[in-house]
Design the sequence.
């Protein structure tokens, strides 16, 4: 029997199933023109938390498959015999709201905007540009870079905002010295960002108990990020923020994909250490931004070296990893940050090094100027193209 060539969608479905390991719980893969994918996943009604985790991980894996432009995973399950709606122990939330710690609520609009498959807005009112600071690997100093870049831009005279989107480990309140802040709302019910060191900031850390674990999953995480972005008084059309910096969680999971796909991001920068093991993780982060059409301006290397009192440099974390990563991806190395005690002290005491002056401040200001120039260049030329070698 003659068989024609497999359709492109069939090839893509095969690649998707292979990426997921062709599991029994994957009931169906639906592919639309342009690479928009819907996954139908069988859920276990007795363990919905595990099923939700599976859904989030499946979306992240499929998003990295070549040819996929968008992913939406849906859970489906038969209700166990004898179980009825009225048997749920927890009372349903009030119509139109979903409770968050300390009385904050997620609106229906925010919940809707946080769902997969929603289109990206052209622009957030009151914000001129959005810069994402990201790393696919934790513990590389990403939040330190985000906070100090914001402080450096503020020092340069830009009206700067900082959105701490690291839902599970918000550190901006500590680094800005605003841990006790309680954001207020304006006459329109929008959150008013907390101001410190010339930075207008919002963080889930302002709304949650610092000692309570954040056990949110999928849509709730996306909705929290969406609401802090869209339901906040960042600026006005007459007096907008010049730049909003988003400090993302490490990795390439649900929160990162939400920001890359659903937020009108102007550009991103990647943070890494010199270690060789950081290369593969940063490549994954770069791949995510490449697939979501977010320009990457370059790489920032942290913990580059330690300089002893005699002026000798010691490469405790390895040497050349940041430059190698940048060269491999076809991106510029925007700057190198050595191990300096004043950077660590600034984060611990709530006084960002970039806002206090000194050697470390000069380094952050130099990086900020490079980032600003690259942001400006996006309006006149194509952004750097990320290259992935076999």
Sequence:
């Amino acid at each position: 029997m003659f068989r024609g060539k497999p359709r492109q969608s069939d090839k893509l479905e095969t690649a998707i199933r292979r990426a997921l390991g062709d599991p029994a719980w994957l009931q169906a893969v639906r592919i639309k023109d342009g690479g928009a994918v819907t996954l139908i996943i069988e859920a276990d009604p007795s363990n919905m938390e595990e099923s939700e985790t599976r859904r989030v991980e499946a979306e992240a894996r499929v998003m990295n498959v070549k040819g996929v432009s968008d992913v939406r995973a849906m859970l489906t399950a038969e209700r166990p015999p004898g179980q009825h709606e009225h048997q749920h122990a927890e009372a349903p939330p009030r119509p139109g709201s979903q409770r968050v710690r300390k009385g904050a609520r997620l609106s229906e609009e925010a919940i809707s905007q946080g769902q997969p498959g929603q289109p990206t807005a052209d622009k957030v009112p009151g914000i001129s540009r959005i810069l994402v600071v990201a790393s696919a690997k934790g513990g590389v100093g990403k939040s330190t870079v985000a906070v100090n870049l914001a402080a450096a831009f503020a020092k340069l005279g830009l009206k700067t905002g900082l959105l701490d989107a690291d839902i599970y480990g918000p550190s901006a309140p500590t680094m800005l010295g605003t841990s006790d802040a309680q954001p207020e709302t304006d006459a329109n019910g929008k959150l008013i960002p907390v101001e410190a060191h010339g930075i207008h900031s919002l963080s889930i850390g302002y709304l949650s108990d610092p000692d309570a674990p954040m056990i949110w999953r999928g849509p709730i995480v996306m909705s929290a990020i969406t609401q802090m972005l869209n339901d906040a008084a960042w600026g006005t059309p007459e007096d907008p923020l010049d730049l909003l910096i988003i400090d993302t969680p490490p990795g390439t999971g649900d929160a990162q994909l939400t920001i890359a796909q659903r937020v009108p991001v102007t550009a991103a920068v990647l943070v890494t250490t010199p270690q060789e093991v950081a290369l593969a993780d940063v490549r994954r982060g770069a791949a995510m931004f490449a697939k979501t059409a977010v320009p990457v301006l370059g790489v920032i290397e942290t913990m580059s070296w330690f300089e002893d009192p005699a002026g000798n440099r010691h490469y405790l974390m390895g040497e050349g990893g940041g430059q190698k990563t940048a060269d491999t991806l076809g991106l510029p190395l925007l700057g190198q940050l050595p191990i300096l005690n004043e950077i660590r002290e600034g984060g611990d005491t709530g006084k960002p090094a970039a806002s206090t002056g000194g050697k470390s401040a000069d380094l952050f200001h130099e990086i900020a100027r490079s980032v600003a120039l690259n942001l400006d260049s996006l309006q006149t030329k194509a952004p750097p193209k990320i290259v992935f070698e076999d």
